[in-house]
Design goal:
Strand content: 5-15%
Number of helices: 4
Helix content: 40-55%
Number of strands: 2
Radius of gyration: 25 Å
CATH topology of the domain at 48-131: Beta-Lactamase
Strand order of the largest sheet: 1-2
Largest sheet: 2 strands, antiparallel
Amino acid sequence: MMLRTFTVLAFAVGLLASGAANAQSQAPSGAPDLNAIPDKMPFDIPFGTAITMERAQTLVQAAVAEANKRGWKMNVAVVDPNGDLIAFGRMDGAQLASIPIAQHKARVAARYRRPTRAFEDGCRSSASTIF
């Protein structure tokens, strides 16, 4: 009885192991090949030099002027290429919860060298393939 139980258990483990190996070798159609090596580095944009505080404050003022023209109440963050805050502006009536969000969005855009919209679009496209 013990030998039969051991044999059935060994057979089940073997089936599970072979199924897992087969599942890893077959990528679903349309899925990107995560092991592919690109010809060149994507988003290979140099970090550049940091802008001055005066220039950052000018950018904040320009963003606030545009927001006022459209009737928006915004928090505006300007960061250096490393994502560290240089200038920040909070308009009257802007949501307090948006302060860290604005700073985080600016930091992510600087560190990953792409707009945060690229991440949102990527999440949307991968979510649509799942559901």
